[in-house]
Specification:
The structure holds two protein chains of two kinds.
Chain A (H helix, E strand, L loop, with lengths): L2 E10 L3 H14 L3 E7 L6 E11 L11 E6 L2 H7 L3 E10 L14 E5 L1 H7 L7 H12 L4 H11 L4 H14 L16 E3 H11 L4 E3 L7 H8 L5 E3 L4 H13 L4 E5 L1 H17 L3 E7 L16 H6 L8 E3 L4 H18 L2 E7 H5 L1 E3 L41 E3 L13 H21 L6 E4 L4 E5 L4 H7 L5 E6 L1 E3 L3 H7 L5 E6 L5 H8 L6 E4 L8 H13 L1
Parallel strand pairs in A: 1-4, 4-5, 5-6, 8-9, 8-10, 10-11, 11-13, 12-13, 17-18, 17-20, 20-21
Antiparallel strand pairs in A: 1-3, 2-3, 2-14, 7-14, 12-19, 16-18
Helix pairs in contact in A: 1-4, 1-5, 3-6, 4-6, 5-6, 7-8, 7-12, 9-10, 15-18
Chain B lengths: L16 H15 L5 E5 L7 H4 L3 E4 L5 H11 L4 E7 H7 L1 H10 L4 E6 L34 H8 L3 E6 L3 H13 L4 E6 L9 H7 E3 L7 H8 L10 E8 L17 H7 L2
Parallel strand pairs in B: 1-2, 1-3, 3-4, 4-6, 5-6, 7-8
Antiparallel strand pairs in B: 5-8
Helix pairs in contact in B: 1-7, 4-5, 6-9
Classes of the chains: A alpha/beta, B alpha/beta.
The structure holds thiamine diphosphate, iron/sulfur cluster and magnesium ion (MG).
């Protein structure tokens, strides 16, 4: 199997992200499996942004490596920042106007200057098209066909399309072909970010409204949904309003999604508790970034697991799930919405910066549909909180009087402080949690990959790096997806016979390890990364080799 | 929904201004379509209205009724959304929601039972308490001037601004009806004496007067709103201060229909 890693970088505003996407789409069209890791700072112009594309001829590698095979530089900064990742056989393609050539003379590196300005001038293009010139030269160098890039450019540039195509054509003519790229025979896949995948899964499960306030790295869920015809969206004044509005749309019968990151989620917690008490369905997508507080806003962390599990005041039942790639994000985006609605409780879908914003090929491993909910007869005898566990739900506008309340209440939805009635309602909600726990049996709550005496437990986006890093290791990989209700039994089965259990997480406290211990599962060792960067394949492999051999 | 009042035990203090407001609301809603009405209330004495009315209701968190109401309207434009909220609720805890619902011109009706005190928590000052108000948390009297809710609402672009008085039920009922019929954000500030902590019945009875029914231009409306600033001893005008038609938030939203996800995926290749 062939895999190579490409970095395309430039200043913010130079379009390196777009360039990365075009490269990924090119290889995708040849049937390669692609993955894009996005790296950018919290600024709008200048700085250094890059996309790292992992291209595989067979099974996709959804992680970045330390070694780079192709470095495509729109500016000098890109060369300086990544030159040490190049090795013998690597290729550097760079804008010829980059003058600091000393670094370009490294032994064993193939350097290819690209006359970007010349290409643009000859095509009467603009300086905004430098990215088009560079990716086009790269495609030609790799032996791709111009006819393959054309439809991609047409899709990606809805302004100045013709000019971009002209620039691309000129770049193709001016570049020498040095490699061969041939069709792998596999079909291209939909390329989605985790954010988009979650939104699509939710749409498939009947999503009707999205209420959100922008916050990296969750904004992509919201901004994507604002482009979708057929759903209603709103951006209110703050996250307290967001979650309150979402409870309103849901009370009116609309399946609703909210997306946010840690800080915004913190503001939502009072209403999370309201959702539990009033039994109004609520789906919150919580995409983690490196905290605490503002933290490192455009970089990754997995520090909100315990917060998601414990947020909201009072005893409450909830569903929490943490997918690890886009297929899982798509499936659980829909499933978490279905669960919120079927159980009438808050449902939290945990992502992190990497899964939210990186681009993956959706393999289509899962199907998701809108699931039926228990609806009540919309007539005058209706009681909102009737029954032993899940009460039939009704929506206002019909015959029924539909009451929802944050106070403890009777079956009619009227406040009560009577001990017996309080206790009964608490137990009614607990029974919903028990039914959800029963459903865990039929859900893919824990996944196990490979076999071996050492079990490595991970969650979320570290999946890609772990699968690749342990490729040749005799280890078992265990991924809990559902975090609440915690699939304790399934975890114990998955870890049966393991001589050693190691948790791999992107936080400093070992939060999953803590959750496991709370559930009576011993963790022997932890690999924790908290420098706001994801694991690289090589980096993770060397840590694990050390841990396992001792 | 023939009987709009539920048999729930009412725990408002005898003589409380909330009774008059409840009556006015009941009369107004019965002239609309009660089945299509949703009442959202906050937390405080006023909030108990949700337990007392045989209406669709959300008994929301302290300060959060307005965004819940906005969400309900976004979800279903056929519903009449009425938020019955407190002054602490709206001008303190949830003031950002009040500001933005007015700016957004959400098609909801917000009725503030303004007793100028946190009543349920047994007497603390709110944004509309007069300077010097002595309470459990301001034993030496408050040190802030009150907020003028009407002037504030007018400055925010609210498209229907009125003031009623719990002691003038028939007049209040007309204001609520007009507010509910108004397309856009309707704000009705209601002077509600709290007979236990801040009994304003005597001064309101003496100083409140009904304005002529004329719709004022915005600058005149603001001037009128400042006639009584919640502190001075001036006469207190009641009635509709301002009314204007503007596109509502919800009518500008598209229709909800099924989405072809598989086609979207095809697009993302
Ligand atoms: C977040 C939150 N903070 C504080 C409270 C406590 N609390 C309950 S009612 C209330 C005051 C209500 O005042 P107002 O809205 O004016 O209603 P009133 O009782 O005067 O009708 C407060 C502070 C609460 N329930 N929630
Ligand atoms: S405390 Fe005041 S506002 Fe509350 S019920 Fe009694 S009189 Fe009414
Ligand atoms: Mg009050």
């Amino acid at each position: 199997m062939e895999n190579f890693q490409i970095i395309v970088g430039g200043a913010a505003g130079e379009g390196s992200k777009k360039a990365g996407l075009i490269i990924a789409k090119m290889f995708n069209s040849y049937g390669y499996r692609v993955f894009i890791h996005e790296d950018y700072h919290s600024l709008v112009r200048g700085g250094h942004n890059f996309s790292q594309i992992s291209v595989s001829s067979d099974i996709g590698i959804e992680a970045k490596k330390d070694r780079i095979d192709f470095l495509l530089a729109l500016n000098e900064d890109t060369v300086m920042k990544h030159k040490d990742k190049l090795g013998v056989g690597s290729v550097l393609m760079y804008d010829v106007s980059i003058t600091n050539t000393e670094v370009l003379q490294k032994d064993g590196i193939e350097t290819i200057p690209v006359p970007i300005d010349e290409i643009i001038n000859e095509s009467e293009g603009s300086s905004l098209m430098k990215n088009t010139a560079l990716v086009s030269s790269f495609s030609k160098m790799m032996g791709m066909e111009f006819e393959k890039i054309k439809p991609i450019l047409e899709k990606e540039f809805n302004r100045e399309t013709e000019k971009n195509i002209k620039v691309s054509e000129t770049a193709f003519n001016k570049t020498e072909k040095r490699r061969e790229t041939i069709e792998t025979g596999k079909d291209p896949l939909p390329l989605l970010s985790g954010n988009k995948a979650v939104a699509m899964g939710a749409l498939k499960a009947g999503l009707e409204c999205c209420i959100s306030y922008p916050m990296t790295p969750a904004t992509g869920v919201f901004s994507f949904l604002t482009t979708v015809e057929g759903i209603r969206t709103c951006q209110p004044e703050n996250e307290i309003s967001v979650v309150s509005m979402a409870l309103g749309t849901a009370y009116a019968g609309r399946r609703t999604i909210v997306s946010t990151s840690g800080g915004g989620f913190a503001l939502m917690t009072e209403s999370l508790s309201f959702s539990a008490q009033s039994e109004i369905p609520l789906l919150i997508v919580l995409s983690q970034r490196m905290g605490p507080a503002t933290g490192v806003p455009t970089y990754v962390g997995q520090g909100d697991l315990l917060f998601a599990l414990n947020s909201g005041h009072g005893d409450m039942e909830r569903f929490v799930v943490a997918p690890g790639d886009v297929d899982e994000a798509y499936y659980w985006g829909g499933k978490a919405l279905n669960i919120a609605w079927r159980y009438q409780m808050p449902s939290i879908l945990l992502l992190d910066k990497e899964l939210s914003e990186n681009t993956y090929g959706l393999e289509g491993r899962y199907q998701i549909e809108k699931e039926d909910i228990v609806e009540g007869l919309n007539d005058t005898g209706y009681k909102r909180y009737e029954g032993n566990d899940i009460s039939p739900i009704a929506f206002p506008g019909g015959e029924a009087v539909v009451k929802a309340t944050g106070y403890e209440h009777t079956k009619d939805g009227i406040s009560t402080e009577t001990p017996q009635e309080v206790k009964e309602m608490v137990e009614k909600r607990i029974r919903k949690g028990e039914r959800l726990r029963e459903e865990l049996e039929v859900l893919e709550a824990v996944k196990v990959y490979k076999e071996g005496p050492v079990a490595i437990v991970f969650w979320g986006s570290t999946k890609g790096a772990l699968l690749e890093a342990t490729k040749d290791m005799n280890v078992r990989l265990v991924q809990p997806l559902v975090m609440q209700p915690f699939p304790e039994k399934r975890m114990k089965e998955a870890l049966e016979g393991a001589e050693k259990v190691i948790c791999v997480e992107m936080n400093s406290g070992g939060q999953l390890a803590q959750v496991m211990r709370m559930n009576g599962i011993e963790v022997d060792d932890k690999v924790l990364k908290y420098d706001a960067r994801p694991f690289t394949v090589e980096g993770l492999r060397s840590i694990l080799e050390e841990k396992i051999n001792i | 929904m023939d009987n709009l009042i539920l048999p729930t035990k009412n725990t408002w203090c005898p003589g409380c201004g909330n009774f008059g407001i409840q009556n006015a609301l009941k009369e107004a809603v019965s002239e609309m379509d009660p089945g299509k009405t949703v009442l959202i209330s906050g937390i405080g004495c006023h909030g108990k209205i949700s337990d007392y009315m045989n209406l669709n209701s959300v008994y929301a968190l302290h300060g959060r009724s307005i965004p819940v109401g906005t969400g309900i309207k976004i979800g279903n434009r056929e519903l009449n959304v009425v938020c019955m909220v407190g002054d602490g609720d709206t001008y303190d805890e949830g003031v950002s929601h009040f500001v933005h619902a007015a700016k957004r011109n959400s098609d909801i009706t917000v009725i503030v039972n303004d007793n100028r005190v946190f009543a349920l928590t047994v007497n603390q000052p709110t944004s509309t308490s007069p300077r010097g108000y002595v309470s459990t948390t301001s034993p030496k009297g408050t040190t802030e001037d009150p907020l003028n809710p009407l002037d504030t609402a007018l400055s925010l672009g609210a498209t229907f601004v009125a003031r009623g008085y719990a002691g003038k039920q028939e007049h209040l009922k007309r204001l609520i009806l007009e507010g509910m019929r108004h397309r856009g954000f309707s704000f009705i500030e209601v002077l509600q004496p709290c007979v236990v902590w801040f009994n304003t019945f005597p001064e309101y009875n003496e100083r409140c007067y009904e304005m002529e029914e004329e719709y004022l231009p915005i600058e005149k409306a603001r001037e009128k709103a400042r006639e009584w600033d919640y502190a001075n001893d001036n006469q207190i005008p009641l009635g509709i201060f301002y009314k204007e038609e503007k596109p509502t938030n919800e009518e500008q939203l598209g229709d909800i229909h099924q989405v072809d996800v598989l086609a979207m995926m095809e697009e993302s290749k």
